[in-house]
Amino acid sequence: MSVERKGWGCLSIWLGLIIVAMFVMLPVDKAAAHHDAAHTAKMKELDSASEALYRYMQDGDGAKAQLEMDRIVQIVQTLSFQGLTSVEGIHALSETIIDTREALARSQSQPEEWRASSSQLRLAVDSLLHKEQPLWIQYYKLFTDDLSQLSKARTESDAAGIKQAYHQLQEHYETIRPAAVIQLDPSLVSRADSWMSYMESLCEEKAAEPDTLKGAISSGTDLIHDLFGKKRSEPTLLPLTGTTTPWQWSLLIGGWIIVALTYTGIRNYNAYQEVRPAAGSKGRHTWRL
């Protein structure tokens, strides 16, 4: 009897603990859901404010831009970045906000600086919110065009054209760099920084070695593909060089094709001979294998 009472006592304790846990967990779940909802609302507000700031600074409307900047600073100060980006990404976003606020606070409007800083901040905030299709990825075409211009200027030995193409590339890189730091592995961005620095030293030289510059542009092409998450170009099969008789290769390839087709035809014929209906089994569906 005592054993039975102990069993019921243990069962009652377990049921009591389960009920208590249910009542304890409900407020926790509600609090977590409330926190997630508040965090999502802040993120959307930050996205809206950065877009408005970009538009006002592009238009040169300093008064409205300042209101949006104040709103961005207020949101960022209360926002949790856990799970959104790395320490380097947080630093890049903070630095971009400070640079944009300083550009906005200057006494006179400087259109070029305003456009550059507001673009940086807009892309940085967008990359924080949109991991799959961020806006800064759209700069890939501009980068490939810049590299094409660099390669063309190098081929033509156009020193002025080389400098101009590099400065355009540098401007585009500085625009997307904070956004890239927020999303990518810091080591990849460090590689890009090193390559840009190396290119600057080559392009600023009065007489850069053509082969050295060619190699740098080639390595930069692969780096840009990595930076934007693009697949590197597959090797293209080109005609064999070093021969003055391409018709011989055509005959050789044609011969291989003929041999392959002949071999396949013989195998099919032999298979047909071996899989005929057995003699005396007319009308039956038995086959000799």
Automatic annotation (TrEMBL):
Full protein name: Sporulation protein
Biological source species: Paenibacillus zeisoli
Keywords: Membrane, Transmembrane, Transmembrane helix
Chain segments annotated as transmembrane: 7-26, 247-266
